[in-house]
Design brief:
The complex is a heterodimer of chains A (224) and B (409). Chain A is mainly alpha-helical and 224 residues long. Helices cover 76% and strands 0% of the residues of chain A. Chain A contains nine helices and no strands. The longest helix of chain A has 27 residues. Chain B has a domain of 37 residues. Helices cover 51% and strands 10% of the residues of chain B. In chain B, strands 1-11-10-9-8-7-6-5-4-3-2 form an eleven-stranded antiparallel β-sheet. The chains are: A mainly alpha (224), B alpha+beta (409).
Chain lengths: 224, 409
C-alpha cells in the first residue's frame, strides 16, 4: 500500500517563504554589522540592566532549564527522535530533517565567526545566540513537518503558539543568565529563521520530486 | 549586611573581599559594568567620576558567575553545559590560594582559522580596505580568549581607528618619504643632493621607528582591559627616541656588543611606563645581567649553526619576565632554549610548507607556549586600582603598519 506523500508548497508559498528567508538573512547580517561596530551597545546595556535586575534565586534553575532547551544536547536528540518516528512512513523527510538539524548546528556555530565580540560575562563568541538560533530552526521545521503531513490547523496553531513562547523564553533565559546581549538573541532568532526557511525550501524541492522519478533519473544517467 | 559573592556565589561576604575567590566585590562589580559598556568606554579619558574602586555602580549587574558559557567556541557549541550552581571561579580561587596564577588561552587554531578565512574573503572583496577590521577581529579574538582569574581580557580597538591611523601615517611619513626618494631621481638632482637626502631619510627612519613603537604600544595598551579596567602606556616618545638612537648607534659602534644593554633599556622603558588602571608595572632589569649569556651565544653561534640564539632568546625572555613586577606580584617564566627553538623552527616550517594556511595554528601554539611557561606569583592586590584610561591615537600603530613591523610591543 502506498503511503500519502508529504504536501508540497505552492509556487506562491515558495515565493513568500523565499522573501521571508531573504529578509531574515538581511536583518541577521545588519545586526551582525551593528554588533561588530558596537553601535547599539548602550541600548543593549540598558536591556541587560533590566534583565539582570529581574534576577531572583527562585528563577535561576527554571531559567537554566529553559536555556538548556536551546542547546544541541536537547535539540539534536529531539530531531533524531522525530526522524525515527517518521522514518517508517516518510524516510526521505525523516532523513532530511535530521540533516537539517545537524546542518543548523554547524551553521549556528559558523555564523559566530561573523562578529567577534564578548558576552556580558566576558566569554567570547557572543553573536549570534546559538540557543536562540537552534530553537528557532527547530520550531520552524516542526511547523513545516506538521503542515506537510496534513496536521489539523488547530494543532498547528497550538504548536506555533507554544513554539513562539518557547523561542522567546529561550532568548529571555540567555539574557537573564547574562550569557548574551539582546543583539545576539535577535541575531540568533533571525539567523535561525533564515536558515530554517531555506531548509524548508530545499526540503520541499527535494520532496516534490517523487522518489521513483529520482531513481529512474539515476538509472538513466548510469545507462546513458 | 553579609551578601553573596557576585563572582563565585560564596554565601556570606562579610567585608568587601570574598574569602573564597578573593575578589573585591565592589571593584568586580564596577569593572564589569565598565566592561559591558564596550567600545563606548574608550571615550573615557582621565579619571572619570566614580572611578574609585569603592564606587560601585548604583545599579550594578550581578555578574551571574555560573552562567559562564560552555559554548565558548564556534566549533564547540555543544559541549556539556556547565553544572548548575558550579562556581566558574573555582579553579582561579584554587590557584589564588596557592599564591600562583596562570594566564590561560582558550582559543583554538580552528577558531582563528575561521576568522582568518572570513577576513581574507572580506579583504579581497573590499580590495584591502577590510584589512584594518580584520586585524581588529584577530586581536579581539586573542584577547577575548585569554583569561586570568576567571575573567577574560578585552580588546576595544576598532578597524576605523586603525584605518585613520594608517591614513595619518601615510600622510605624515610615507608620502614625504616617497617624494624625497622619487623626485631627486626624476629631476636628476646632483649626486651630493641625492646622497644628502638619503642620509636625511636614514635619519628620519631612525627617528620614526621609535616613535612608531611608542605609538603602537600606547594605542594597543589603551585598547586593552581586564575586568573593565583599562591598560595604558604613559612613556614619552621623545625619551624613547633618545634611548633608541643612542642604543642603535652604540650597538653599531660596538659591533653588536651593546645589544643586551640596548634591549634591556627598551624593555625597561616599555614595561615601566605601562599601567593597569592607576597602578604601574615595574621593571628592575639591568643590561649587564644579559651580557654573559650574550657573549656565550656569540661564541657558540657558528659551532651550533645559529641555534645558540634560541638559548639566549629564552634566557632573555626569562630575565625580562622575572624582572617585571606589578605591585607585589612577580611574574615568572621558565621557558627553555630547546622548546623555544623547536617552537620557532617548526612554526616557520609549518607556515612555509602549508603556504601560510597553518598560520593560525602557529599563533595559537605560540600563545599557549608562552602562557604555559609564565605565571604570576604573590598577591594581586587589586584594591587600590581604579580606572585611569588615557586617550591614544592609532597613528603610531599606522606607522608601525607602514614600516611593516610589529615590534612585538
Amino acid at each position: 500500500m502506498s503511503l500519502p506523500q508529504p504536501r508540497a508548497l505552492s509556487a506562491g508559498q515558495r515565493r513568500y517563504l523565499l522573501a521571508l528567508a531573504l529578509a531574515a538573512a538581511v536583518v541577521f547580517f545588519v545586526i551582525a554589522l551593528l554588533v561588530q561596530l558596537g553601535v547599539a551597545i548602550e541600548a543593549e546595556w540598558r536591556v541587560q540592566r533590566v534583565a539582570q535586575a529581574a534576577r531572583a534565586g527562585a528563577l535561576e534553575t527554571p531559567m537554566r532549564i529553559i536555556s538548556l532547551l536551546g542547546t544541541g544536547w536537547v535539540l539534536l536528540p529531539a530531531a533524531v527522535l522525530g526522524g525515527v518516528v517518521l522514518l517508517p512512513r516518510h524516510a526521505a523527510l525523516a532523513l532530511s530533517l535530521v540533516a537539517a538539524g545537524v546542518g543548523a548546528a554547524g551553521a549556528g556555530n559558523l555564523t559566530k565567526l561573523l562578529a567577534i565580540r564578548q558576552r556580558p560575562n566576558t566569554v567570547l563568541w557572543a553573536y549570534p545566540s546559538t540557543h536562540t538560533f537552534g530553537i528557532a530552526v527547530f520550531v520552524v521545521l516542526l511547523l513545516y513537518v506538521l503542515w506537510a503531513l496534513g496536521a489539523p490547523p488547530g494543532r498547528r496553531a497550538l504548536v506555533l503558539a507554544a513554539g513562539a513562547v518557547l523561542t522567546v523564553a529561550v532568548g529571555a533565559s540567555r539574557l537573564y543568565l547574562n550569557a548574551h546581549w539582546i543583539g545576539d538573541v535577535l541575531g540568533g532568532f533571525t539567523g535561525g529563521l533564515a536558515f530554517a526557511l531555506a531548509a524548508v525550501l530545499v526540503l520541499d524541492r527535494r520532496l516534490r520530486v517523487p522518489a521513483a522519478a529520482r531513481g529512474e533519473a539515476r538509472l538513466g544517467a548510469v545507462a546513458g | 549586611m553579609a551578601e553573596a559573592c557576585p563572582r563565585c556565589g560564596y554565601p556570606a561576604v562579610a567585608d568587601d573581599k570574598c574569602p573564597q575567590c578573593h575578589v573585591v566585590v565592589s571593584l568586580y562589580q564596577a569593572s564589569l559594568e565598565k566592561l559591558r559598556r564596550g567600545p563606548g568606554g574608550s571615550r573615557t579619558t582621565g579619571s572619570p567620576a566614580g572611578a574609585s574602586p569603592a564606587a560601585a555602580p548604583e545599579e550594578s549587574i550581578p555578574p551571574a558567575p555560573d552562567a559562564a558559557e560552555p559554548a565558548s567556541t564556534p566549533f564547540g557549541a555543544f559541549r556539556a553545559p556547565a553544572r548548575p550552581g558550579a562556581p566558574a571561579a573555582a579553579a582561579p580561587a584554587a590557584s589564588a590560594s596557592a599564591g600562583m596564577r596562570k594566564l590561560r588561552f582558550h582559543g583554538s587554531a580552528m577558531g582563528l582559522f575561521g576568522i582568518q578565512a572570513i577576513n581574507a574573503l572580506l579583504t579581497l572583496l573590499t580590495l584591502g580596505v577590510f584589512y584594518f577590521w580584520a586585524k581588529t577581529r584577530v586581536r579581539r579574538y586573542v584577547m577575548g580568549e585569554t583569561e586570568l582569574e576567571g575573567d577574560r581580557f578585552a580588546y576595544h580597538g576598532t578597524g576605523r581607528e586603525l584605518l585613520v591611523g594608517f591614513a595619518k601615517g601615510v600622510a605624515v611619513f610615507f608620502i614625504p618619504t616617497a617624494l624625497l626618494t622619487i623626485l631627486p631621481e626624476l629631476y636628476q638632482a646632483p649626486a651630493e643632493v641625492r646622497s644628502s637626502l638619503r642620509s636625511l631619510l636614514w635619519l628620519v627612519g631612525l627617528l620614526v621607528v621609535p616613535v612608531a613603537m611608542v605609538g603602537a604600544r600606547r594605542y594597543r595598551l589603551s585598547r586593552m582591559s581586564w575586568r573593565g579596567i583599562r591598560f595604558s602606556f604613559r612613556g614619552s616618545a621623545r625619551q624613547f627616541v633618545g634611548i633608541f638612537v643612542v642604543g642603535t648607534i652604540l650597538t653599531s659602534l660596538t659591533l653588536g656588543l651593546y645589544y643586551p644593554v640596548f634591549v634591556t633599556q627598551r624593555q625597561a622603558f616599555m614595561v615601566s611606563h605601562a599601567y593597569f588602571g592607576s597602578r604601574k608595572f615595574d621593571f628592575d632589569g639591568r643590561g649587564r645581567d644579559l651580557m654573559k649569556p650574550f657573549l656565550v651565544m656569540i661564541l657558540l653561534f657558528l659551532p651550533t649553526l645559529g641555534l645558540s640564539w634560541f638559548w639566549f632568546a629564552a634566557r632573555r625572555q626569562r630575565y625580562f619576565t622575572e624582572r617585571t613586577r606589578f605591585g607585589a606580584t612577580r611574574v615568572r617564566c621558565t621557558i627553555a632554549g630547546g622548546p623555544l627553538a623547536w617552537l620557532t623552527i617548526s612554526n616557520v616550517l609549518a607556515i612555509v610548507l602549508s603556504l601560510g594556511l597553518l598560520w593560525p595554528w602557529t599563533v595559537v601554539r605560540s600563545l599557549e607556549f608562552t602562557l604555559r611557561y609564565t605565571s604570576l606569583h604573590g598577591p594581586l592586590e587589586l584594591e587600590g586600582i581604579h580606572q585611569d584610561a588615557r586617550a591614544a591615537s592609532a597613528m603610531g600603530e599606522g606607522l608601525a603598519g607602514l614600516l611593516d613591523a610589529d615590534f612585538g610591543v
